[in-house]
Design a protein that fits this description.
Length: 251
């Protein structure tokens, strides 16, 4: 088992390339992730010093909508809809090698797949997950939506409209790390069809509701943003995160 924190590494020429894949199927997006991950692994084998590290941030919406099921033995049991109902809704099922349980992806959901080198960023797994959550919390704060963490459940949670004592998940997280290179990432519900979450027990958490930015903002009589607007803010937060990690290494 890999340690929870990578060995420290001397600063390199870090960069983050933003790649907008638009609307894309889960399989095609996964193939893109593998290609960029393998390219980064190969680049790290070079003897150049300092070696350039071009990391990627893939942004997309999954179309057609899809339920992704992890390798966790009980994950598939959390599909609650019949095959006939899923076919009627046009929802596919795909196995995934990320961590976590089961989740839904579809139009209106902003998905970010960072292909990062945690060793070059001098980040442990826990710190990386914490950073992803913070990036989302800072993004939705631009719309006066208060995101928070739940120590017992990964992701970003917000108070439900008209019931602020109950938290709902607005963003799911799930990653895979190989040779300290990350895959998968986060899925932020901007204007997602929340009815589709009724086909599963999201993340295997019974009784924990799911929400979206549009649901929260509509309840506050505010206009919901376009997904491209939210995407722009999320990218800015990711870029700041990379820059801060670079600055930390150069101190």
């Amino acid at each position: 088992m890999a340690p929870h924190h990578p060995p420290t590494s001397s600063p390199s020429l870090l960069s983050l390339e933003i790649i907008d894949l638009g609307r894309i199927s889960y399989r095609d997006a996964y193939a893109q992730q593998l290609r960029y991950r393998d390219s980064l692994i190969d680049a790290n084998k070079t003897n150049a010093s300092p070696r350039p590290t071009s990391m990627k941030l893939l942004l997309l919406e999954h179309v057609p909508p899809v339920i992704t099921v992890s390798k966790k033995p009980t994950a598939a049991q959390h599909i609650t809809a019949s095959p006939e109902r899923l076919e009627q809704l046009g929802i596919e099922i795909e196995q995934t090698d990320r961590g976590g349980d089961i989740t839904y992806h579809g139009p209106g959901q902003l998905v970010a797949y960072p292909i990062l080198d945690l060793k070059q960023l001098n980040l442990g797994v826990h710190d990386y997950m914490h950073a992803l959550e913070q990036i989302v919390i800072d993004t939705i704060a631009e719309y006066e939506i208060t995101g928070t963490r739940d120590p017992a459940a990964t992701g970003v949670w917000v108070p439900l409209p008209r019931n602020e004592n109950k938290l709902a998940k607005i963003c799911a997280l799930g990653v895979r790390i190989s040779r300290w290179i990350t895959m998968h990432g986060l899925a932020l519900n901007v204007s997602t069809n929340l009815d589709h979450f009724n086909t599963i027990i999201p993340c295997g958490l019974e009784g924990r509701p799911v929400t979206s930015m549009i649901q929260i903002l509509t309840a506050q009589n505010k206009n919901a943003p376009e997904i491209n607007e939210v995407k722009s803010i999320l990218v800015s937060r990711f870029q700041s995160f990379i820059q801060n990690q670079m600055a930390e290494q150069l101190r």
